[in-house]
Write a structure and sequence with these properties.
By secondary structure, the chain is α/β, with parallel strands linked by helices. The protein contains 16 helices and 12 strands. The protein has a 5-stranded mixed β-sheet with strand order 1-12-11-7-10, with helices on both faces. Strands 3-2-4-5-6 form a 5-stranded parallel β-sheet, with helices on both faces. Strands 8-9 form a two-stranded antiparallel sheet. Bound molecules: 5-phosphoarabinonic acid. 5-phosphoarabinonic acid (PA5) binds next to loops.
């Protein structure tokens, strides 16, 4: 199992102003955490509770069907193209970047064991999209269009562009290159899929986008590029079992949720930094940023009181950001909790040759860069602690499907528990609606004429 170390948030280590009396805090919140975990587990199957993500690890049917489909299309495609945004893209990107060999898309077909390359389009930047379309052979590309609502403007506009091109290239057969992952019943993409006869997979009810990585949203692309989804799900299940423990002393997600919550509300640490010492976990940090920000950044609590809560999440990558953000983290405002992710055993090793022995860089020779990276992680952690900056460390034995399943699921549960501590709705995102409506108005969507007039006035003043 992954390991969690909270020693550097203790007040005896980083001082009363910046740290916590962990023993007292855990004891004080013990009963509340017990109730939260019991509550989440007891209502998870209630329609509307938005907690079906807690069951995804056990969804053998989906695992079976995505594997079946991947086997069916094996060898037919050179590329997987995932269209989606926010929660419909970030989990896929996080897992693929973590688990596929580095520079996967630059490997030869043989090096990829005949598996396809994978591309995620999670924005509507015309230069990026045109650039990708210039290099992709769409005939040999399977397009996974992922949108739970089935109507997200960014994803659907990408889809409309690509569908037209596929049709021009393949006539009636274009359908064979499209898979839609969307709601079972509602939404325009569902309707279109039924009409046009696309292969579909379902985003289950009561699973929000940012909690959907272990549904077909993630699993289908993973299966298509040969990621070991059985091991991934085993990691999820084992972590789920571990996190059913209602005792805060034995529940790492509850511990980190409480630590973040208390540091925020009692010690003004309103920024949560996710800092993996691994480039492969770069998108895990991005995924966490969305999960933490969109789930916990809320105006009102469950009772309707205006609370304006939520920590601002930030990504930093070790060692790169030691040469960028660490100066600020050490000496700037002491308003952050830093989450280190440390990897005990990298999948490969690279030794620094023993050259330039009698120079100032001679000490590097004969060591591995694995050792150097972890030495830098340890050194930065100690330095931050010297500066009285609270930090926790999540350690993975290695980066494989099993541990990535554990890590992502732990962070989901941590977010769910934090949401209960803040007493907010973790699963909605009312704050994104206003700009969406304005966009519809600007784009001339029927029904938004009045908004357009108001908007134009505001834009011209
Ligand atoms: O986490 C979320 O719920 C959001 O980020 C959504 O995933 C995002 O807005 C995309 O929505 P949809 O999947 O409906 O296209």
């Amino acid at each position: 199992m992954l390991r969690f170390d909270y020693n550097n948030v203790k007040e005896e280590v980083v001082g009363f102003e910046n740290g916590l009396d962990i023993k007292a805090a855990f004891e004080k919140y013990k009963n509340q955490i017990f109730k939260i975990i019991m509550h989440l587990n007891s209502i998870k199957d209630k329609p509307g509770a938005m907690l079906q993500w807690m069951n995804l690890g056990y969804n053998e049917e989906t695992v079976w069907y995505v594997k079946e489909y991947a086997a069916l299309v094996e060898g037919r495609f050179d590329n997987v193209l995932v269209l989606g945004i926010g929660g419909s893209a970030l989990g896929g990107m996080a897992v693929c970047e973590s688990l596929l060999p580095a520079y996967w898309n630059l490997l030869t077909k043989e090096q990829r064991n005949n598996l396809p390359k994978i591309f995620f389009l999670d924005n509507i930047d015309p230069d990026q999209m045109n650039g990708l379309l210039d290099i992709l052979d769409l005939k040999r590309t399977i397009v996974c269009v992922v949108t739970k609502s089935g109507s997200t403007a960014e994803t659907m506009s990408q889809f409309m562009i690509i569908k037209k091109r596929l049709e021009e290239l393949l006539d009636e057969n274009y359908r064979k290159n499209i898979v839609a992952i969307t709601d079972q019943n509602i939404g325009i993409l569902r309707q279109l899929s039924d009409q046009e006869g696309y292969k579909t997979f379902v985003v289950p009810d009561d699973v929000g986008g940012r909690f959907s990585v272990f549904s077909a949203v993630g699993l289908l692309p993973f299966a298509l590029v040969g990621i070991d989804i059985d091991q991934l799900m085993q990691g999820v299940k084992d972590m789920d079992l571990a996190l059913k423990n209602t005792d805060i002393w034995n529940n790492v997600a509850a511990q980190n949720a409480l630590i973040h919550y208390l540091l925020d509300i009692e010690k003004n640490k309103n920024i949560s930094v996710m800092m993996p010492y691994s480039n492969k976990l770069k998108y895990v940090a991005d995924w966490y940023i969305q999960l933490w920000a969109e789930s916990l950044g809320k105006e009102v609590d469950k009772n309707g009181n205006v609370v304006n809560v939520g920590q601002t999440p930030i990504r930093a990558i070790g060692a790169t950001d030691q040469h960028s953000q660490i100066q600020l983290f050490n000496e700037g405002p002491n308003n952050k909790i830093i989450n280190f992710i440390r990897i005990d055993n990298f999948n490969t090793t690279l030794e620094i040759p023993k050259i330039f022995e009698y120079t100032g860089i001679g000490y590097l020779g004969g060591k591995t860069i694995n050792y150097l990276l972890n030495a830098e992680a340890d050194a930065t952690k100690v330095a931050l602690t010297d500066y009285k900056r609270p930090n926790v460390t999540i350690t993975l034995d290695k980066i494989d499907a099993y541990h990535i399943g554990q890590l992502l699921y732990m962070l989901q549960v941590q977010t769910a528990i934090a949401g209960e501590l803040y007493n907010i709705n973790t699963y909605n995102q009312p704050g994104v609606e206003q700009a969406k409506n304005y966009t519809y108005a600007l784009m001339g969507r029927v029904g938004y004429e009045d908004s357009r007039q108001i908007l134009e006035k505001k834009m011209n003043t």
